Amino acid sequence: IDLENAPNSQTFTVSSGGSGSNISDLKFYNAEIKVTNAQNLNFDNVTSLAADWSHYIIIFSGSSNIRINNSLFHVSNSGGKSYMQVTGSSYISFDNTVIRCEGYMGNLIGLTNHMNFTNCEIYGPQSYSAICKLFNSVSPQYNLFENCTIVYGGGSVALGSNSIAKNNTISGGLGLTIKSKIGRAVQQESRD
């Protein structure tokens, strides 16, 4: 499926009836991908490109066990809108996926409990902005960042207890810290 640019917002939605689906080889241009009340989904080889786009790119709502593999998400100049919204969802995994955001952006990824990023490349804008946090969260727990390249122009990410960050390459001034249950930093990935 190849959804081309259109004057109005396009949305590709997977709802509860699509639970258990394998979704592959999709290409989107200036379109939202929305997963609502769905479980056990596999996305593979998905490309989503957006420019000068003032909508969310990915929305997870009330969903769980979502896997995104071998995919590319690239957005530039969202007008301050967040890139990925996650509400009431958990067990979302990204593997071998590139997430690239450039220009004037809002928060990039709404991090929640039980999100995994393995073998991923995550690029935020080159300059830090107070309205553009790489991961917007309040110390989510049980997250995994492993073998990822993360580049962002500054700021820090504090993951909650029972999270793991290992073998990552972090540059651009970003700090990644794991907090214990009592709020002390117990593990920190170094910056360049």
Secondary-structure topology with pairs:
Blueprint: E1 2-3, E2 10-14, E3 22-29, E4 31-36, E5 39-51, E6 58-61, E7 64-69, E8 72-76, E9 84-87, E10 90-95, E11 98-102, E12 109-110, E13 115-118, E14 121-123, E15 135-136, E16 144-146, E17 149-151, E18 156-159, E19 164-166, E20 169-171, E21 175-179, E22 185-189
Parallel strand pairs: 1-3, 2-4, 3-5, 4-6, 5-7, 5-8, 6-9, 7-10, 8-11, 10-13, 11-14, 12-15, 13-16, 14-17, 16-19, 17-20, 18-21
Antiparallel strand pairs: 21-22
| Count of discrete alpha- or pi-helical segments spanning 4 or more residues | 0
Distance between the first and last residues' Cα: 40 Å
Q: What percentage of the residues does DSSP assign to strands (E)?
A: over 45%
Helix-strand makeup class: mainly beta
Q: In oligomeric terms, what are we looking at?
A: single chain
Sketch the topology as an H/E string, one letter per element.
Answer: EEEEEEEEEEEEEEEEEEEEEE
For the largest beta-sheet, the strand count, sense and barrel status come to: 13 strands, parallel
Which outline best applies?
globular
Rg, Cα atoms, Å: 16 Å
Q: Give the helix proportion (percent range).
A: under 10%
Average pLDDT number: 80
Q: Give the low-pLDDT segments.
A: 182-186
Question: How many beta strands in the DSSP annotation?
Answer: 22
